[in-house]
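Subject: Protein entry, chain in single-letter code together with its fold tokens

Category: Structural biology, sequence-to-fold work with a learned token vocabulary.

Notation: Tokens come from a learned vocabulary of local backbone shapes, not from coordinates.

Start of record: The labelled sequence and token lines come straight after this line.
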Amino acid sequence: MNFEASSEQQEACIEKIKEAGSDDVNPIYLLKKPIIDKKADYDYKDAFVVLMPKHKMIFINFGDEDDFEEFQEDFIEDMGYISKKYDFIGIVGRPRKWQKEFVTEIQYSSEDFSFKEILRKNELTDKELIRRGDILISLATGSINEAERLGVDVPNNILDQIKRKIILFDGEQTKFIFDEPKKKRITIQGLAGTGKTELLLHKIKELYIDDDKSTIAFTCHNVILADSLKKRVPEFFNFMKVEEQIQWEKRLWVMRSWGSYGNPNSGVYSYICNHYNIPFSRFSYGNTFDSICKRALDELNQMEDFEACFDYILIDESQDFSEGFFKLCEKVTRKCVYVAGDIFQDIFKDNPSMVVNPDFLLNKCYRTDPRTLMGAHAIGMGLFENTLGLRLRWLEDDQWEACGYDIKREKGEKYIELYRKPLKRFEDIDMSKSDGVTIISSEKDKYLNTVLNTIEKIRENNPTVLPDDIGIIFMENSNDNFELASKLQLLIREKYNWKVNIGYETKEKVEGTLFISNRNNVKGLEFPFVICIMQDALTYDYSIRNSIYMMLTRSFLTSYLILPDTAKNINLLEEGIEFVNRKGFLKVEEPSDDEKRNLANAIINRGNLHKSLFQKAEEIMDEMGVVDKEHRDMIHQLIRVRFKNKENDENKLRKFIQANSGALE
């Protein structure tokens, strides 16, 4: 929501507030009313409220004192209503009590106005007051947290401190949720953990309640993620106290992108084909999703008296799509298409010349320890292994900055330093006793003990850890890993009396259970701790490295990466990760200009260079939506007989899988 000054005095005051600035962790918010309460409308315009973590609410007046007093009363009364609505009265108390602790008044004078001095005088030092003050800010700015999760007291251990930390939207996030769209397509990019899906849920809620006639579609590429999102939407609406009933498949659709011919509401494309009575293209050899979207768009462009069928379409994980799908969505949308994706995965695709220029750039990762994110990026791009000449990717300065990094160079030095700003989620928490990423080597026949020992270490260091605080993720869809999952399920239940959820079977995260799954079923999930398991050799295939990045960034405290002890470069990874954990930044050798050009050219063809027949088959089945484990196993068996692991022609492989997957259904 844009803040507009209503007088020259207010503009001058705002400039002084900007000059005083804020630190890297604590933002400053200027409000004329609580953002989330759109029905609230105050007649008095000559005042605003300054909100900043660790400080009181500062009401600044530029006009009549009597009207200003009424403005304060209205604002505080509305805050009381909001805190009651979202169940925070028991934590923050009633307004008549917290008003004395958290509210200060300032009559603006251009001559002696010093915002730095005002902040100093109104700083909060008591931990409990700081916590309650942050909750009030979250309620005023629409960054609603779950009252039950936050609890009523200040936790005394790292795990609970982070789990119960109050999350506040920054300016970009707030504008995305509450601003009106100004063009047909709005793009939002951010790293894993920047809250993209959460923001889309907030946006859906705002669009749904603002206009009771609006029609909205929420979509993504992955079948399992689409099912997960369909469950999350009603849960989110309930949490946000939305009174309107969801009118499924009348006003709101949550579905994958392609869908099936027999069920128009299973996908955006299938819905479009049914709604406009145009041919539906099934998955087949030579039929890419991009090409069928372009053909559908051509059909629609030839129609007379065409009318859009949706008001809004929101697309999650946009890096999984190409331009054809975006243009088709724009065609069938009256008002706006919101496109959200992972900027790092976009940069890492085979497009070295891409320009980072989204409408909303989220480069602050609110979920993950910055050290984890740095370690995940470095492993993903092969930065620690540069001494072997095996770096996979390098980013230009604008791309590093778009990913949230500050760059430090010394003239004449070949090494550069990459820093990430501290995050409020980890503010005031001593993280020196924990690591962002931990590399663990294991002998092939000892993976079971290695995983169990890692769980035991987590339990010893975190006495309050719960089963659903831990996620175990496999890289490979191999029999070795499926057998390992079965053994872990039995031993964890026996040793800790914990329930275990096999995610690739249930296709969901179940409360009160330890989660075990493969890399195909973890998008959108987060855990305090993840244990990532890779039993094959660590290759330099960029899709594998990108998967490692995705897996490692599922945690917000520590990620454990278990690799085979035969990995030749494991010592380099350990040294690099140890440096990041202890120093808190990346120090890497910058390539020469020639090396940068070579990396940019090589990325185009690297995708298939090192892929095994098994890996290609896995990716094709993921694309086709073959999720049943037994079906996948049978297809792999047929491939081994037909191709004998020698022929590696992807086109023939795709055609073979398509034919046999249909026969198995």
